[in-house]
Amino acid sequence: MTIWMSWPVWRRLTGIAVDQVSGSTNVAIQTASALRSLGEAAGSAHIDDPCLPVREGIDVVFRAQPTAAAIANLRNLVYDAPDLQLLLKTLDAEVERLGQVPLRLAEQGSALIRDGDSVLVHSSSSSVRAVLDLARRSTSFSVTCTVEEGSGEGRQMAAELASAGYSIEMLSVGQAAAYVAGVDLILVGADAIGPGRMINKEGTARITAAGLDAEVPRYVIAATDKILAEELFVTAASRAEAMDMELVPLSWFTAVISEAGPLTPGGVSRLATERRVSPKLR
Description:
By secondary structure, the protein is an alpha/beta fold.
């Protein structure tokens, strides 16, 4: 065991790695903050390569959450940093930037919801929840939550919304697919987005396809941190099935709503192409 694996910040990272409850942006912020502390500790300990503990730390989180695009993009930044000083500056910048994303994303998404709308949401998504919470400040609407029959995915979202006083209905994915023509819009989150496709919890394809047939507006609520370069997306996609995830064509959605506004599949592809992948990850 290397010396840094006995440090308290390393134990903090291992706890973050197994967090399957917090939203991906929050997990990325916690990870970046812990990695910064790990880097500082490594520098103070005069380790020959003080970036090595940070790379190993992000690998721990990435292995536990291989389809989480925010973590994959953070890992890419960590591996691309040439020295500890630049790595620490990069992590500082990421914590600050990521902290601004949820409100900006909620502002973009909440504009979709009109008074009296019936909104169908699938699976648990902190981004979708942020949109609903902001829209609720000025708009009255009802929410239908889907629950995947096998995994129970979505039950936590329904429970949280009910506890917060939302008017909700809870349906199985099969029931919701038959019911979808009666809603005004569909909102889903995403674990990762790549050129032409997105990864999300099981049931997403069935709900989206039903919405497409019924001509109900369908939106992915996801920050641009969820967009991966093609080669990183392929890695995430290869793990999707084992993680009870599925791939859905972006063409099935009306748009991806990001903190920068609506994105078409072409817009997503352009952003994915612009992503620089560290040579160390190729």
